[in-house]
Amino acid sequence: MIEIIIIVILLSALLTFYRVIKGPTVFDRIAAADSIGIMFLLILVLLSLYFQREIFIDVAIVYALLLFVDVLIMAKFFGH
Amino acid sequence: MEMIVYLLLLFILLTAFFASFTKDLVNSLIALSLLSSTLVILFIILQAPDVALTEVVVASGITTGFFIITIDKTGGKR
């Protein structure tokens, strides 16, 4: 069941990557990359549930924090 | 689980081609960040959480931030 959910999320991430390739402006690419990052965060939590190991949650927490900081830095330096 | 690994390898291939053959530095940087975060999921599937944690902190966080600041300070396009 969890494998099917991860496969569907990966297919939607592949569809979102089309917007990264053919986005007209930089902001479309940043928004699409942030969306793909949130999908990967969900995949990390589902893999921790699949393997029954709690240490994989820590990787998901650090990735969520650094994704937020990363998008914040992009918005600060490319927003003007 | 093999299907997930094949989809992740396809995603790594697409992001690597886009990061190599695009004309703009910012697009290449965004694709490189996606490549490193895809590699994190592959390390998790291969049961190596410490390598995945280091990859998250260094490649997906610090390198992208420093490259953004460097591209902004040097003016940027191509």
Automatic annotation (TrEMBL), chain A:
Principal location class: membrane
Transmembrane segments: 29-49, 56-78
Top-level taxonomic group: Bacteria
Pfam families per UniProt: MrpF_PhaF (PF04066)
Entries under InterPro entries matching the protein: MrpF/PhaF-like (IPR007208)
Membrane topology designation: Multi-pass membrane protein
Keyword Transmembrane in record: yes
Keyword flag Membrane: yes
Compartments reported by the entry: Cell membrane
Gene Ontology annotations for the cellular component aspect, listed alphabetically: plasma membrane
UniProt keyword list: Cell membrane, Membrane, Transmembrane, Transmembrane helix, Transport
GO molecular function, one term: sodium:proton antiporter activity
Family membership: Belongs to the CPA3 antiporters (TC 2.A.63) subunit F family.
Protein name per its UniProtKB record: Cation:proton antiporter
